[in-house]
Write a structure and sequence with these properties.
Layout: H1 2-56, E1 58-61, E2 69-76, E3 79-87, H2 93-106
Antiparallel strand pairs: 1-2, 2-3
Length: 108
């Protein structure tokens, strides 16, 4: 009887450890899938940015510290021609967009 109880206790401990390992595996697998999605989304964003730069001849410059500013370079061939910078606090999204298009049109 005593041996049977010890074996059942050990079996319960092993079963609990197996449940924990399965939960950890699920968590790791979800994180891996999330990381793959993030990498795929970043690649798509880079491709969109590349297409945008190719079509408009504008290469945006990200300023993480100041999201109220839009800046970038007008590109000709392989070299930067002119830097531009817009203060978006002082204008609407429509005005910002029109300003960028004006820069593009005036430099073509």
């Amino acid at each position: 009887m005593e041996l049977e109880r010890k074996i059942k206790d050990e079996l319960r401990v092993v079963a609990d450890e197996l449940k924990d390992l399965n939960a950890q595996w699920t968590s790791v697998d979800e994180k891996r899938q999330s990381l793959k999605r993030k990498e795929r989304d970043e690649l798509r964003a880079e491709m969109k940015l590349s297409i945008y730069a190719c079509v408009t001849k504008v290469t945006p410059e990200a300023d993480v510290n100041d999201p109220s500013r839009i800046s970038g370079y007008l590109v000709g061939g392989e070299k930067r021609i002119e830097k531009f910078q817009l203060e978006t606090i002082k204008m609407t999204a429509y005005e910002s967009c029109n300003s960028i298009w004006s820069i593009i049109i005036n430099k073509q």
